[in-house]
């Protein structure tokens, strides 16, 4: 059972919290909306697990040669391929049923997410820069599911902030992989071919640009006249320091603690990040309530 749970990667479900951003910042806090958002959250969670299982099935041979991925349930033999296929079908079915219980829009976004990840695993993950934009697009689909999928008009600010922060995390992940490659001193066992097209210098530039855009876009959102009119307060600006600190802390972990390969795990294991995100959520709810 432990190996099955490890294969499904439930700690990554925290990423599906992007689904909840729409109702939060649109002030749609009714019981029905929150219930539908919760169903959409679990629909994406099941689909995310299906994608992870599918990727592991497709990459099982290559992962056996990877210094880290060889310990995953499939390449290590802890979970059989037949059981993995059953889990894949089960997660896909659960995701579609949950999304249909919300709306056809959510079903569409979940389906696009799955198809996009198939294309990503097949070829797009080898295309430099586009690979990170595909990762970001997965998060944008979550935001759209939590807005359009629930009958909420998506905010341009929300989409902009979401795009910038997910691009930042994506390029940071590539930089962390390069750092791991440098420390290993041997490229032959690393399976991500797109790393050959990245360099530390260009990734540092991408990270700097997206980090700055994240801070600026969120800061401008908090002082926007539309935001102040919607929420009836200009105090949202006081949540900005948490965003800045979180970005700085993440960069510190990447360069000095060999983190960044698994954003969800880093968030759940580093008490600085965990406390920062928790404080941001609590402060935001307090300001908006």
Taken as a percent bin, the fraction of beta residues is: under 5%
Residue share in helix: over 70%
What composes the largest sheet?
A: none
Low-confidence stretches: none
> Averaging pLDDT over every residue, what do you get?
91
Number of helices, where a helix is a run of at least 4 consecutive DSSP H or I residues: 14
User: And the CATH topology of the largest domain?
Assistant: Tetracycline Repressor, domain 2
Counted up, domains total 2
User: What is the CATH C-level name of the largest domain?
Assistant: Mainly Alpha
**Total strand segments:** 0
At the fourth CATH level, what is the homologous superfamily of the largest domain?
A: UbiA prenyltransferase
**Kindly, what is the distance between the CA atoms of the first and last residues, rounded to a whole number of angstroms?**
41 Å
| Structural class computed from helices and strand pairing | mainly alpha
Taken from the alpha-carbon principal axes, the silhouette is: globular
CATH architecture of the largest domain: Orthogonal Bundle
Radius of gyration: 19 Å
